[in-house]
Amino acid sequence: MKMFNSRKITILLTLLGISGFVFFACSKKIAKRIDTTTTSTTTGVIANPCGTPTIVSFSNDVLPILNANCSISGCHTAGSSAGGLDMDASVAYSRLMQPGSGYVDTINPNNSLLYTQLNNSSDIMPPSGKLSDCKIALIQKWIQQKAKNN
């Protein structure tokens, strides 16, 4: 009878060990999806479901969104710059950062014309359909990080 009990204990401990290993492995994967650069007073961290990088790069992160959605025929190109804004790759940054334009406001990012237009529900930009929340959040984060030309 004692041998049977020790066998049960051995099996139980083995299962607990495997469960602990699986839990630990999964928790590491979940932790990688959390952006700890932004803190919350209640939880200590805010989840980053979009997987935005810690530092947003204009050339690697923002410009591809602008090229694919804004700098297209009939919109914000040199030949037809809607609203006077040319978003061609070679001039997009300088046009967005023109003093007094209001396109990018690093002091009040949510007041940036770029950000407000992307969130406008009555005059949707781009006209082909609103950008995903993740793309808009990426652009907002770039503005919050002082809209560097990196």
Silhouette: elongated
N-to-C series of helices and strands: HEEHHHH
Structural class of the secondary elements? mainly alpha
Alpha-carbon distance between the two ends: 71 Å
Average pLDDT number: 80
Can you count the beta strands? 2
Number of helices: 5
Strand content: under 5%
Helix fraction bin: 40-55%
What profile does the largest beta sheet have?
2 strands, antiparallel
Rg from Cα: 24 Å
Verbal overview:
The chain has 150 residues and is mainly alpha-helical. The chain has two domains: 2-47, no CATH class; 58-144, no CATH class. It has five helices and two strands. It has a two-stranded antiparallel sheet with strand order 1-2. Helix 2 (58-69) crosses helix 5. It is elongated and about 80 Å long. The model is unreliable at 26-41 (pLDDT under 50).
Quick overview:
The protein has 150 residues and is an all-alpha fold.
